[in-house]
Amino acid sequence: MGLKKAAEIVSKIVKKRGAFFESYLCYVYCLLLLRCRRMLLGRKMVAGILVLISHSVSAGELHVNGFPVDAHFFPIGVWMQSPTRAASYKAIGINTFVGLWEGPTEQQLAALARENMYVVAEQNDVGLKSVNRHVIKAWMQQDEPDNAQPIGLGLYGNCIAPTEVTRRTREIKTSDPTRPVMINFGQGVANEFWRGRGKCNGDYSYYDIAMQGADILSYDIYPVGSSTPQVKGKLEYVARGVTNLMKRATAEQSVWMALETTALDPARRPTPAEIRAEVWMALIHGATGILYFAHEFKPKFRDDAIFRYPDIVEEVTRTNHLIKSLSPVLKSPSLIGTIKISSKTPIATMEKVYGSTTYIFAVAMQNTTSAVRITVDELHDANARVIGENRSLPVTQGTFEDQFEGYGVHLYEIEGQNR
Hints:
By secondary structure, this protein is of the alpha/beta class. The chain has helices spanning 3-17, 22-37, 40-58, 86-91, 106-114, 125-129, 162-175, 205-210, 236-248, 272-284, 310-325, 327-330; strands at residues 76-79, 96-98, 118-121, 136-140, 150-152, 155-156, 181-185, 216-220, 254-260, 289-293, 334-335, 339-342, 347-354, 357-364, 370-376, 382-386, 391-395, 399-404, 409-414. Helices cover 32% and strands 22% of the residues.
């Protein structure tokens, strides 16, 4: 039996039996190997297995019970929905539920399992022991610990201390080291004008401490629905928060972004184009997972209010399917410092090379129209296909030009480059 095969056997046992049995099963299995082989090779094999198992538990995205590492899987989530709607969300390209009301319960996990829907859930005994725990791909902390916490009677106290957040992360990992831990922060990550954090208002060092030990760092801001005048309608705040988390994250930590889809401001909901812009702002600035906030509070609360708006459902479905098709590209390394932009409006870009194809993803960072010239190092003369727009642009000496509407998004595919 080879070293890799032996490690796979242990990992399969852990997946089937859960985190509670991990250390014990590894120990027993290794003892059996030693007893059966009774030779130096056996001891070396055991040592190697332990290294592989340890690596799989500690290397962030390689948690044995975490999200798939398949290049074609990209986390696309929805916030706090009933598992009875899993089929409806699956149909629009959602693959992960984030949060479960008063859960996880066995009934909730069973409903998600029937639809092969993953979930990020708070840790409890049901989740740790359920026969359907395989759908749990990460544990989540209490939502928005950086915000002032309710203390009853409609009053709010202070944020959760950052050292307490890190303690909770350690506690969750002690109970189950085989799944990543996710923390979703509030809008204070990006909105310097937000005054809903209690004593933590304006304290950005909070995040340096609170995120320690976590594996998935997320945050939410909803510019279209914002009640902060300085943020209202300014989609660029999505990118600002992603950048702030990326600066603080370690190489092993991933950043997700929570995005608006409904009329959080009853007077105006986001347009399909604005949702598309927010998604690509997040991805271009480094997010490796997205989740949609589908709740609406007025005139009447509805948690799946996205389905009130067929145009939004259509856009989210199209965007999700596009992300899925581009997942191997998005997961490939980005080229840094290879693009020059000439534009009156700031344009954020991301360059990827996948096989012999170059991809340029671009989004306007202000709500102003601009003619844009894009120059890419070492790009040969070719045609740039604009993904999803049924048009192409000529590339001459590494340069092509396009028109961007305010917060416009264009995604370019240039084949036959061999760069």
